[in-house]
Structure formats: C-alpha cells, structure tokens
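idk why but the lab printer keeps eating my pages so im just putting this in chat instead. protein + biotin:
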Amino acid sequence: MPRLVLLAHPAVRSAFARELGRDVEYHERIDSTQTRARELAMAGALSGVVVADHQVAGLGTRGRSWHAVAGSSLLASWIARPAPTAPALFAALAGVAVARALDSLGAEGARLKWPNDVELQGRKLAGVLAHATSDGGGGVLVLGIGINVHQRQRDLPDEIARTATSLAIAGHPVDRLALLARLTRELDRLEATGELERAHGEWTERSTLLGRPVVVQVEGRSPLAGTATAIDDEGALLVHTADGIERIVTGEVRLA
Ligand code: BTN
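predcted complex ->
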C-alpha cells in the first residue's frame, strides 16, 4: 500500500501533522498544490504543507507545466511565513534540502543545477518552484517541490524521456511519506541560525555547473559564454565572461 495515500485518513493526517509540526492538507487529486498553498497563504496561513497524490495542472518554472502520472511522485507545497529574506537563494538551497533528504533514504549523491533542479545520475529528478509575496509584514513564500519517485521509464513524457529520471529508475525504492517527512525536516533546518551559509557551501559542492564553461540564454539577449563561478547571496548565478562578471537572475544555462 503506498503510504502517502494514508494521509486521506484524518487520524493518520493529524498524527503526521504533529510529527511535522505543521498543518497538512492532502488531496488525492488537485489542480496544483502550489495554487492551493498560495490560496491558503493569501488567506493568512502561517505554515502548513499541501500534498497531492496527483496534480492535473501542475506548475513548473518559467510558465511551464509539471506532469506526473497519478501516484508516481512527491508533489508538495510548503508555506513559509515570514518569507526568507532572499527567496531565490532559499529556493536554490531547497535543492540541498532535497539532496540531504535523499541521502538519508539511501539515494545518495544528488547534484544541483542552477537555479532549482535536482539531478541524479545526470538526469533531472526534482524541481523547485518558489512564489514570494509581500504582505505588508515579512511576506510569505510558497515553495513547491516535485520529486519523481515511482515512475518507470515508460511513464516519462517523450519530451523529457532522455533528460529526466525517477528514484525507481535510478534503483532506489523510496517511500513518498518518509521522503515528505525527511524533506520537511531538512527545509525547516535551513531556517536555523547559520544553516543557510552551510547549505550555500553544500550547494557549491553539489553544483553541476560551478567551475565549468557554460552558455547562458537570457531572454532578449544573445547567448553568453563564460565560466560559472558561484551563486551569490540572492541566488543569482555569477558567470565570468571575456567582458567581466555577469550576474544571471533568470535564464537557461547549459554546459558549453
Ligand atoms: C520545475 O519546473 O523544475 C519546478 C517544478 C515544481 C513542481 C512542483 S510539484 C508540487 C508543486 N505544485 C506545482 O504545481 N508545482 C510544484
């Protein structure tokens, strides 16, 4: 029995919510946990996590959609209020939280591709989507994470079949409920004193791009070639080019 679906039972859900220390809303089927968590955040929710077994209108970065067959993935959105001071950096470092959670469950060695992709064995395993909103106070961040868990190769849509993977494809049978618990703990840990700096260092170690020649495509500009050297304290990628240092806030980056 896939354990995530046990969250449909109120008693299981409230025990799990106590374990996590935050409200848990579970949906067997929903448009998008991100849309739902944003509604809750707009209505004043302080924390909480929205989880689904299946999304029918999952949101990806840069206006894309996020597809996952029913029952295949960990699909969740966490509410953080007040928002972290640098939401884009926090979203990148959420990748470190994903990698640490995976390590703890035996799926070791995940690597991070700027801005928010988690890769395993050179293929995309997970993505992070962040929506920060100001509210006249400290603001609120809704952080959505999708992790491919049980997909078989034939479950991956054609357009990502050669660039994506799942924990099952990579040989790691992982339980989604355990992953949700570990990942929530790792996300909470990022908010403790000194932990962002530590995670920033770990992001650098796990990065697929740093120290390597890259080509960056920024909308409306011609491609830019250089060497990726760091992410700064706001999560921007620094690329050393022949003309100086470029600070990339949004764009597509690939190895040259
Ligand atoms: C990316 O494009 O790489 C980011 C994908 C983020 C997908 C997750 S799944 C849970 C949450 N709900 C959504 O609709 N999107 C995010």
